[in-house]
Amino acid sequence: MTLAPTLPDKDDWTVDDLAQLPPALRCELINGRLIILPSPTFVHQEICIGIYLALRQNCPRGLSPSLDLSLEVDHRNEPRPDVLVVDPARGRRSPLPIEDAALVAEVVSPSSTTRDQRDKVKLYARAGVRSYWLIHPHRDRLILTERTLVGDIYQITDETDDVFTTDVPWKVTIDLPALLDHCIDLVGPPEG
């Protein structure tokens, strides 16, 4: 039996501290807080893959969608968005510089709600990420909220639970009801 490593008891973590952790530990650093990321659910991953596949269509040369990569922001922040669009030229590097991110998307889970809707909104805006999507899985629908950077703050430019279409960072269409139906076809309807 392998025992989990004991993590130092710290209130303020830095990216230097992350280098001392086991490389297999899924974590992110937000405002000096170390967040150990739980293993995602099957439905969460299917939603991420659906978003990823929609982004692959019409993707211009020099950009590429990806899943679950760490982004280098500053000494106290290294987020790990669910889906992102980056310049693949530095694809052998981890973490990637946040300046390479044209879009970040988070699929909100019960444990990430505050972090995704408050902390990361401010963090990504401050870092200059042009587009931030939040996908909220609900019992009977998916809601996608698109935020576009205007100056140094995000403005909500769209929110829908239907077919989502945008031109930022390029022409993308996601049929949210079809994506939810796909998940339900795979795992069955939500319990309760």
Task: Name the descriptors.
single chain; 192 residues; alpha+beta; tt1808, chain A; six-stranded mixed sheet; two-stranded antiparallel ribbon; 12 strands; 31% strand; globular
Determine the N-to-C terminus distance. Answer: 36 Å
Order of helices and strands: HEEHEEEEEHEEEEEH
Largest beta sheet: strand ordering = 3-5-7-8-9-10
Counting DSSP H or I runs of 4 or more residues, the number of helices is 4
Poorly predicted tracts of residues: none
CATH fold descriptor: tt1808, chain A
Beta strand %: 25-35%
* Number of beta-strand segments: 12
Backbone CA Rg: 17 Å
SSE-based structural type: alpha+beta
Tell me the count of domains: 1
Question: Which CATH first-tier class would you pick?
Answer: Alpha Beta
Q: Major sheet: size, sense and barrel closure?
A: 6 strands, mixed
**Shape from CA axes?**
globular
Protein name: Uma2 family endonuclease
Organism: Catenuloplanes nepalensis
Keywords: Endonuclease, Hydrolase, Nuclease
GO molecular function: endonuclease activity
Task: Provide structural commentary.
InterPro entries: Nuclease_put_TT1808, Restrct_endonuc-II-like, Uma2. Helix 2 (42-56) runs antiparallel to helix 4. The protein has a single domain (40-187), classed as Alpha-Beta Complex (tt1808, chain A). It has four helices and twelve strands, in the order αββαβββββαβββββα. Strand 9 and strand 10 (153-160) form a beta hairpin. It has 192 residues and is α+β, with helices and mostly antiparallel strands. The model has no long low-confidence stretch (mean pLDDT 92). The strands form four sheets. Strands 3-5-7-8-9-10 form a six-stranded mixed β-sheet. A two-stranded antiparallel ribbon has the order 1-2.
